[in-house]
């Protein structure tokens, strides 16, 4: 029985203060379990009553049409690619914890590590990107050049980098140099214990289930591979990296471009039609579908953006456990 098979994974990931219970109907059985409260940080299922507009369209899209069924792993596929923000992780963790941490600790980190190769490597990427940005003042009016490395001009260099970080973060830019620098700052935070990666409890359970049943799990995020590994390697459930087969970031391409998903499929040597991709972002799912990804799946979590008609035609879930079933069940 499906629930019995998953129960050890559910119980292992559940906070003892948040008991789980078996759902009573066959339709709800795929949800597996639900907490007795609806705290966003609890994982598992968030109730529609928490005020998240996306939950209104779990079974039917904004036009009123029924959504297609979601895939079952490993029954339908043995390869799943996961987004982070709004999928594996509460979106507010990134914007309310990680991003402010990087911003407030940036200057101190630069001052402490200025002469280190890892930092200067990230800054060299930022310098290259900044040299392009300053040529587009209409698009990037706050763009600033970052001078070459020099110990003699360290103070001025740090000032320029901090300004660059601030305006790029204000615009929520997804570019490699900024992501690399943020990753270094977060690494310090995780190492000191100031940061713990947020992962929904159902994600932890699903990762264990998929590992046990031979499903290959990959992460694709606009955050750098290094930052991804920090989040999952220092999560509130401990080090989860052994449950993940690989990572992709913007080095493979932007997440809203179909070519990126084709490149991932090529690197994995898996036909796009056999891949499941889970994300909260409609434009990413549209790009994945254009690339031929067989199972683009919409993930609804507390705090995610309201859905639009761009979400039409995609199956929707609120828990990764809804994707877990063997072929013979």
From TrEMBL:
InterPro entries tied to this protein: Enolase-ppase_E1, HAD-like_sf, HAD-SF_hydro_IA, HAD_sf
UniProt KW keywords: Amino-acid biosynthesis, Hydrolase, Methionine biosynthesis
Gene Ontology process terms (BP): L-methionine salvage from methylthioadenosine
Keyword ATP-binding carried by entry: no
Signal peptide (from-to): none
Alphabetized Pfam families for the sequence: Hydrolase
Highest taxon, organism lineage: Eukaryota
GO molecular function: acireductone synthase activity; magnesium ion binding
Keyword Transferase on entry: no
CDD domains membership: HAD_EP
NCBIfam families xref list: enolase-ppase, HAD-SF-IA-v1
Protein name: Acireductone synthase
Source organism: Eutreptiella gymnastica
Lineage: Eukaryota, Discoba, Euglenozoa, Euglenida, Spirocuta
